[in-house]
Amino acid sequence: MSHERGSNSLQFRAHNAVTSHRVPRVQETMGNGTLVVLVDATRPESLHLPVTLLSALAHFGMPYRVRDLSLGPLRAEELLQHRGMVIAQEHLGEALRGSDLAEILRAVQGGTGLVNFDFDLRRYDQSYLDALGMTLTAKTVMAASDATVTDNAGFLTFTRTPGERIPFKRPVPAHAVRSNRGNSPVSFADGSPLLTACQIGEGRVVQWMVSPKLWLPEVLGHARGLDDLFWKSIVWVARKPFVMKAMPPFVRIRLDDCRGFWRDGRDFDFVDVLNEVGHIPNLGLCMRAVTPDGGRRVKKLFDEGKADFSPHTLEADVSLFYGDDAGEYSTDQLATLMAEMDAALATWGIRPSRVLSDHNHMWSARSVPFLIERGITFKMNVTCPGETWEGPHVDWAPAPYGQMDYVLDTIPGHPEFFVAFNHYPTLETARFALPDGRFLFNRDGGFAEHKWDFLNGLTKSTLDHNDVDTMAHRFADHLRLGLDSLFFGGVISHTHFMKDLALGELREILQRADALTARHTKRYVSYEHIAEYARSKVETHLSHVSISDDGHIGVTLIGRATVPLELYVFRNIDEGVEHRFESIGKCDGVQRLRFRA
After folding, report:
1. Which of 57, 97, 122, 325 has the most CB atoms within 10 Å of its CB?
2. Is the pLDDT of residue 446 over 90?
3. Residues 361/394, Cβ–Cβ less than 8 Å
4. Side-by-side strand order, sheet with 203-208
5. Is the dihedral of CA 521, 523, 529, 531 positive or negative?
6. What are the pLDDT digits (tens) for 491-545?
7. DSSP secondary structure string, 246-257?
């Protein structure tokens, strides 16, 4: 996919040429509906930007352009052509001339917002600190190891809980400051602000006081607990209206029957409880366990749009898509099994979900053509064909962040298969690196409190009771992180844990989890819809966004979207922000639209 880009970004991109799958291409957008990213591509810290900033802007669908300071001085008139300015290169104050800072502040006064993720204010002219009402309490940096939410009244932390603590993986440089203006809803352990948000003239500013190395995966990284503050900082400061092409707040629950507990129609009564809240579950079936009565209930749920169904196992703990105790299936064996699967689905009168539910995350390379033939080309995990759970796995550093637990990307060597996956960072604790760059999973999966199944370890089969309260909190935590990170809210469990729950207990878990996430907007859809939407989002780009004085927004979308996409359209309301969704339809090549803000 190609589009217009200026010489600034070409130089920046060339300086940061990296071939790793982890690093995204610089995809700029033309027009005055954009952010401008201020960089100095001659300085080594710019090499972090593809991972710390650009990958996030791409994932959030925020239109931006890159402005390289080494190419010449800034002018306020240039900056005022954008919705907001973003600084995320550490120590950029060394590259900013005194006149550059004056022009930046002029642009802020005129309404172009500023987010500065560069904490190192020692290298900024005093006029900048004065404008923000800030004083450094010490000339030396401190080590920050966590952040604590102190207030959730405003837009930045609205979905947070006061007192909530976000630990980092390792300490990162930070500055302690005093601020006499604006709000500081998140703090370090010493009580000094992690960020401050204030108004200067017509524009808004958010200044972060922690190193942008925070967004490197070895320190904390994206989709690890602070992404809502990251993207909301940008949205809050941006001149309105402002648009972005992020994932809507989709929610799905996935349940797998590995051992054949779903047999008769009554075994699916739990779906009614899920539907009460709004969930449309993806149910991974043990194919030979389902009786004719169970098949009739499956068809009813399918026809009414109350669940979608993925073949998961052949029989109890026997893979359908990889092999059995005798080894990996041959092509002929797979053909026989696929014919049996087709016959069962035809008997029940349903079609399978296009999202592959492969037991133990295992699918044979020989299964690939059979899956493609049946249109099953989305994946709910990150394993490559032929890998076994116990064996080595390729760490293929998928988009958007090079992490193996929050993924929207195609399988290496198999572009037909798109992965839409969120498995909570507990999956990371179960991965252990090998010297050759591959990794092994912990043989038993999640352990202790590090479990991605919201019921695992909390039912009466493990304890002497069902710990409903902890189940609800785990459910809510898993949902919240996906939504706050602009992926999708996702929860998983298995029938060998669910069998311990009474329907009343399941209802109580769902109600408690819903109350714990009451400040989140949630849109309940099928896993298949999420996967197809995510692929359409990833395979399209806003190449042009323009906003006219009369309040009209013009966008040009390029790429391929097989389902209608939506834009977030933000506007300021008092000191906060609100949004609506604008449908921009499907796309096959180029799509141009114009609509009112």
Report:
1. 57
2. no
3. no
4. 64-68, 35-39, 84-87, 113-116, 203-208, 195-200
5. positive
6. 999 999 999 999 999 999 999 999 999 999 999 999 999 999 999 999 999 999 9
7. PPP-EEEEEEE-
